[in-house]
Design brief:
Elements (H helix, E strand, L loop, with lengths): L5 H12 L7 E5 L4 H12 L4 E4 L6 H10 L4 E4 L7 H8 L7 E3 L4 H12 L6 E6 L4 H12 L4 E4 L6 H10 L3 E4 L8 H8 L5
Parallel strand pairs: 1-2, 1-3, 3-4, 5-6, 5-7
Helix pairs in contact: 1-3, 2-5, 2-6, 5-7
Amino acid sequence: IGGKNRYETAALISRANFQRTVPVAYVASGYDFPDALAGAPAAGRQDGPMLLTEPGRVPEATLDELRRLQPQRIVVLGAQGTVSDTVARTLGGLTTAPVTRLGGKNRYETSVTVSADVFDPGSPTAYIASGHDFPDALSGAPASAAQGGPLLLTEPTVVPDSVLAELRRLRPGQIVVLGGSGTVSQRVLEQLQSLRWQ
């Protein structure tokens, strides 16, 4: 499945897997990876696609697919600097519910905001991947969705406070760290191993 660019490819993947009137469609920037990766398990958990947009305008391939899907609601991932209010307003004409924006002041907080919106305490698994590069999170996102848990992003050498707080809220049955020690340090692993809850 492939189109002439990333926007068409995302739309074609959606078309191949989702019927009309989906419960939700997620839209993330096609210019950078973190928000789309953190949102992928949430989209999968809710039986919705992940589509891509330019920061300041919605590509025609994305618009056409959203018209076909007729989503009950649309979720925009990322703050205004990542996906503009102009894009959000355009998307608002393609669903009957108000467009929801899930974003934080950085990629780590955005991953937490997505997790908190979709996943309840007692999630079986939470996946942790570096927010500095995409391969490990990309590989882990489908597994995270299949296991009913979020994918949270971390700094390579320290877990952001917002991520630690979200893990304490979730109290997952297990935490899976993706990547070797050169990607996610031993210090991060030790921080996560020290978390305790009843």
